[in-house]
Design a protein that fits this description.
The structure is a homodimer.
Chain A: E1 2-7, E2 21-26, H1 31-40, E3 45-48, H2 52-57, E4 63-69, E5 72-73, E6 95-99, H3 103-110, E7 116-120, H4 125-134, E8 138-143, H5 152-165, E9 169-170, H6 174-186, H7 190-194, H8 198-204, H9 209-215, E10 225-228, E11 231-234
Parallel strand pairs in A: 1-8, 1-9, 2-7, 2-8, 3-6, 4-6
Antiparallel strand pairs in A: 4-5, 10-11
């Protein structure tokens, strides 16, 4: 039986093995939700970049630059970190270079280790689960957290994915068990359960209630997003 | 309002501040449960020690030595890490030097930082909560985890303590919110909920079902255990 584990923050990644696994990176508010939305809405490719300066320089190489720090759009960037900016094909056919506080950092931690690296969001939950069923790989879900700390929203997504995969994956990791329980008990009230979470409060201060609601939408986009080389694109089913 | 946070493993401690706080260290299976039991059962003092060799040498200084690694009694030690060894005053009046895989490591991480350091166990849950109500200190619960990883049993205890303190403490930390939810939904079935946990399975392989059951007993001992200098003793109420 294949195995599934949950690493609750990138700070704990050294305790897990990413090699020969499918790693699902999740940053619900908002990096991976935004990546899934952008590609579904026609963006050609996304280059995740760890620091603001590298990202900024890519502007001269034909990339639209998207940058966020501490929940707000970084100075001088065209786009911030809202999935709503990409709706109705607003950047269809474009290449995006993107840097965020937690999400792009998490991707970099596993990018040369894992066999497959997928972007997880509630928006493409079922498609990602279906794809993982077809692979002959153990799964590690890497929650991006908030500046190294555990957060509720990424954990709830991890629990949702563990729940969907539990028929064919073994889940003896305590992080996976806790996440699965938290999700299954709150699956019909994600928004109200998360309303007490630290990150939701932080984001609400920036007037992005609409982003939160959108990021908690289940299965709006039936796509799988993976890292291919340095670039995130829509994966073709194998 | 006082604040309460939960650090889910010592690996994340660098993201929290222990200074000027009451830190509750918890290692349910079994270090802090054993410490609370030993002192309740008449042990005069416990000296927590991080490594086996230092602990072994204390044998010549009048200490009974207790040592555990990976769930089993360390070679050449008088005691392992079972609370049952201390029942019926078996070591009443004695001094114990103790080293364990996770618990004594966690204590050492905060011992020169926190204002007060308490040992938390289900066995003395209410007494610890009552004591924290009397202090004018914010609280940080430090889960010992398993070799750096998150574990369910320490998290459930953290949730129980957050739940008891929530009337007078603010709990905006996501770790505290998740722990509180996990505990409140499972408070009447801790043993069956934990039967799926990795650590329970690990300990069951060592035939210590009785230890597990004992460590999950609520409020058997109405004492508060704190670190005073290098020594753990029963705290007098202030």
């Amino acid at each position: 039986m294949k195995n599934i584990e949950v690493c609750l923050t990138p700070e704990l990644l050294k305790l897990y093995t990413a090699e020969n696994k499918a790693v699902v990176v999740v940053d619900i508010f908002r990096a991976t939700s935004t990546m899934v939305t952008a590609l579904s809405e026609g963006v050609a490719a996304i280059l995740p970049v760890e620091d603001l300066e590298t990202c900024r320089q890519l502007s001269s190489e034909g990339y639209i630059i998207a940058g966020e720090r501490n929940g707000q759009k970084a100075e001088g960037f065209v786009l911030g970190n809202s999935p709503l900016e990409y709706l109705e094909g607003a950047y269809s056919g474009q290449k995006i270079a993107m840097t965020t506080t937690n999400g792009t950092f998490a991707i970099n931690q596993v990018k040369e280790k894992a066999e497959e690296i997928l972007m997880g969001a509630f928006l493409n939950l079922q498609a990602t689960a279906d794809y993982l069923h077809t692979l002959n790989l153990d799964v590690l879900i890497l929650c991006a957290g908030w500046k190294g700390k555990f957060n509720l929203e990424d954990t709830l997504y991890a629990g949702a994915l563990v729940s969907l995969l539990s028929s064919t994956f073994d889940t003896s990791c305590d992080g996976a068990l806790a996440a699965k329980f938290l999700y299954e008990q709150n699956s019909d009230q994600l928004e109200s359960f998360l309303s007490q979470a630290s990150h939701t409060k932080r984001l609400q201060n920036h007037n992005i209630e609409q982003d939160i609601k959108f990021c908690l939408t289940l299965n709006k986009y039936p796509i799988v997003v993976s890292l291919s080389g340095k670039i995130l694109t829509i994966t073709q089913e194998k």
